TrEMBL record:
This is Malonic semialdehyde reductase. NCBIfam families: PRK05365.1. It is an enzyme of class 1 (oxidoreductase). It comes from the Bacteria. The keyword Oxidoreductase applies. Keywords: Oxidoreductase. Gene3D superfamilies: NADH Oxidase. GO terms for molecular function: 3-hydroxypropionate dehydrogenase (NADP+) activity. Transmembrane segments: none annotated. InterPro entries: Nitroreductase-like, Nitroreductase_HadB/RutE. Its EC number is 1.1.1.298.
Length: 196
């Protein structure tokens, strides 16, 4: 049995964490991106399917290529982030299942049902995108997720021959301490939950 995280850790992951409104000039090194992936990949997915794929845009040239695909309200904050992450999923994730899962013939089960494999890839890729946010916060980074973009344009510009599909985009970096917003309201337990 593992002990609950201490209050400081919970503050860093949830209570004090915010989607930033600006970024500091501190770079995010490649080693940090590797450490980030090495944490997030450990989060659970159904059948250990691990469908998420991540494209880290680190140069100004690569980030600038994203500009025409972004909604106008997202351009400044997104492109100013030290790293922009394209959170994607691989519809053919099942090709890796013989290596990833102990369940016999799981690959063929998904390969035979396109609807099931697409649903599984999107659902579990979204889970892994959530793990990206928590792992980033655990490493002292901030994340600003974006859903306002042209998915077809992003896939055409960046994903080409991979076959990957875009889920959402996130700015990643160290926040500008003077640009952290107040916590927005959240729904209460009784508004969002049923205990049956």
């Amino acid at each position: 049995m593992t002990a609950p995280l201490d209050e400081t850790s919970l503050d860093q992951l949830f209570r004090h964490a915010r989607s930033p409104r600006g970024w500091s000039d501190l770079p995010v090194e490649r080693e940090t991106l590797v450490a980030l992936y090495d944490l997030l990949k450990l989060g659970p997915t159904s059948g250990n399917c691990c469908p998420a794929r991540f494209v880290f845009l680190t140069s100004d040239d690569m980030k600038e290529r994203l500009r025409p695909a972004l909604s106008s309200g997202n351009i400044a904050l997104c492109l100013q982030a030290p790293v922009v992450v394209l959170v994607c999923h691989d519809p053919l994730f099942f090709e890796h299942l013989p290596r990833l899962s102990r369940e016999a013939d799981l690959r063929n089960w998904f390969a035979a049902d396109v609807g099931l494999s697409e649903e599984t890839a999107f659902r579990n890729g979204s889970l892994q995108g959530g793990y990206l946010i928590l792992a980033s916060r655990a490493l002292g980074l901030s994340v600003a997720p974006f859903s306002g973009f042209d998915s077809y344009a992003v896939e055409e510009i960046f994903l080409g021959d991979t076959g990957w599909r875009i889920n959402f985009i996130a700015g990643l970096g160290y926040p500008d301490a003077h640009a952290l917003p107040e916590r927005a309201m959240r729904l209460g337990f009784d508004e969002s939950c049923l205990v049956l």
